Amino acid sequence: MLDTVSVALPENGYDILIGPLSETAARFRRLAAGRRVLAVADTHTGSILPEGTALFFTSGAGGEFVFPAGEASKTFATAAAICAAAARQKCDRRSLFVALGGGVVGDLTGFAAAIYMRGVDFVQVPTSLLAMVDSSVGGKTGVDLPEGKNLAGAFHQPRLVLIDPAFLRTLPMRERIGALAEVIKYGVILDGAFFSFLEQHAAGLTAEVTDPALFGRIIRRCCELKAAIVVEDEQEHGRRALLNYGHTFGHAVELLSNFSLSHGESVAIGMAIAGRLAVTTGFWSREDELRQNALLRAAGLPVRLPRKYNAAALLEIMRHDKKCRDGRVVVVLPCGIGRAQVVADLEPVRLMEAMEQCHD
Amino acid sequence: MLDTVSVALPENGYDILIGPLSETAARFRRLAAGRRVLAVADTHTGSILPEGTALFFTSGAGGEFVFPAGEASKTFATAAAICAAAARQKCDRRSLFVALGGGVVGDLTGFAAAIYMRGVDFVQVPTSLLAMVDSSVGGKTGVDLPEGKNLAGAFHQPRLVLIDPAFLRTLPMRERIGALAEVIKYGVILDGAFFSFLEQHAAGLTAEVTDPALFGRIIRRCCELKAAIVVEDEQEHGRRALLNYGHTFGHAVELLSNFSLSHGESVAIGMAIAGRLAVTTGFWSREDELRQNALLRAAGLPVRLPRKYNAAALLEIMRHDKKCRDGRVVVVLPCGIGRAQVVADLEPVRLMEAMEQCHD
Fold it and tell me: Is B240 a catalytic residue?
């Protein structure tokens, strides 16, 4: 069974194919025909790749580049090393990069593809749930700086995305749960029916063995929702900002926890705080907030802000977020399950109130 | 006297203002109003900047970043350092970078602006003749890798270019002469009347004191010619490739000389070789070739290939040029003074012949 989601951008549209790699490989081979291919993976992806997959991607002319797994690799230095590897492999402007891995591999490889010889094509093969539902779709690429995450990057759309849910079998549960924060986020801000679907299948979300049919449906819907947003607003001048729901608070929590809380856990807490704020400002109802938080909990995610994270300290971090305009904090607030809007003119005291009400 | 050349790109057009900075400053201040500004210069530019200029650019909120002058600084590490400085200065997506210097400063600052928070605006203030007539117009930005020059970069147009010919007074003669190779190139490939103008003013090109009126006219015409090409073909899919005239051979010569020949000297030799090839293949006449080479010589540029640079070795380097497609060397040949075309199907032996005929 093969699902296709089309990202219908006017100039650089592409397809997301969801199904076994054995069925999507032909499409990749057509794209790669006659071009040099540089396959990029991290040390972790290398070990979980099914026998022969790496070989299959580099069966034409080209080579591989593997770097140490982990966010610490997401640097200018690794992007430079990918470009250098491409040069040594004699990649030219027509060459193709392939990202085999999670978000770090995708962001780095996409960034290297955006800048190598001022831009070459690339293909995303996400292997984590987070990359499947979020980072591999939409063309945001980048690297971290000591001063902050994703501070340098480019908008560069892939030419093709191949998603094989079979990769999820080996994904650690904590990573799966983290990605579910983004999955639930799509439901809250964009699609009430999808939110209800997730409520009905809550038990399956954290079942020890992933149900490929369930996750195939979840991934497809998330890709459809994200694709629609990206087509409307490729470079985040407007509606795409809705996808930051839970992230303004979440990034601050993640940073203040010194990354002891995962991205997904931080986003879940951020959604709980934004949901609280939406109640106190009258954007949505107490019932909506309870439904959101119940689903987050059912997925194994936290919805309380540990007391040690001070509201004033979080606010200070939010003021330096790269999405902040002239020091004004911009937040996304839901106005019912399935709808949300960007709000820029809230008093800082309202934000702090909401954070304090979420303290555990 | 203030000249304006408009680069009429459909989405990101901008103006090039040619005249004293004292007259163009108002336009800059309007653009920078209410935004944080990061002024980037190298150690050399810092020392030649007229008293107060640096201050003037950073009179609003913002700061400066100065890096060691020279091509050796044109690396990922310096681009990362510029982004880090921007982050420390609390630059956001609306901030403005300013490049004060020659090609290296412009290429690096433009690249940093292209990627900082996935793209911020930048202004070019070129201080060398080469940057004024070439690198500050057109939006090509980038850094070098150990594997090759400009191997990573982005197309990112400036929002404004301010050219003050007064900076040329302090430019070393060898640098001025190097830039004249690009100036003469514009005449050969695009504008016979401009070529004749340069012939008539040949003595002024290398006069000890630069004539601001003469150089003002030269800079304006070069900017007009380059702007017209860039508007037609922003990302070099077609006609923009004409600007590589002399560069395919020239880059190889520059590399084989281990940079003991300057870029301009190498391009002049490259133009002489391409001019020779255009005679042997019947693209232009022996008389055209003689006119081109006489003007290059009058400008103080070499037109003979030192015998120690072997034709076979040069050809091998050209085969690995980033503009090379599938190992086929693409050259630009003039078909008369003022016209040129891209030629991709020449036998390697013809290229070697032309190189050998240019040996000194």
Answer: yes
Catalytic choice (B64, B182, B234, B254)? B182
The nearest CA of chain B is from the CA of A119 a distance in Å of 7
State pLDDT tens for residues A274-293.
999 999 999 999 999 999 99
Residues of A with CB below 8 A from B109's CB? none
Q: How confident is the model at residue B53 (pLDDT cuts 50, 70, 90)?
A: low
What lies within 8 Å, CB to CB, of A99 at 6+ separation is: A40, A105, A106, A108, A109, A110, A122, A123, A124, A125, A126, A136
The model's pTM is: 0.91
pLDDT in tens, A110-152: 999 999 999 999 999 999 999 999 988 889 999 999 988 899 9
Nearest residue, CB atoms, B84 vs list A80, A88, A145:
A145
Q: Between chains, do A152 and B80 touch, taking CB under 8 Å as contact? A: yes
pLDDT, position B56: 57
Q: Judge whether A201 counts as a catalytic residue.
A: no
According to DSSP, the β-strands at A121-126 and A96-101 are parallel
| Residue B198 and residue B134 share a domain | no
B73: domain CATH number is 3.40.50.1970
Residue B122, burial from CB neighbour count under 10 angstroms (0-12, 13-18, 19+)? buried
State whether A83 and B140 contact (CB < 8 Å). Answer: no
pLDDT score at A190: 97
Do residue B166 and residue B177 come from a single domain?
no
Contacts of A323 in chain B (CB under 8 A): 93
Same domain, B47 and B181: no
State the nearest Cα–Cα gap between A316 and chain B, in angstroms: 13
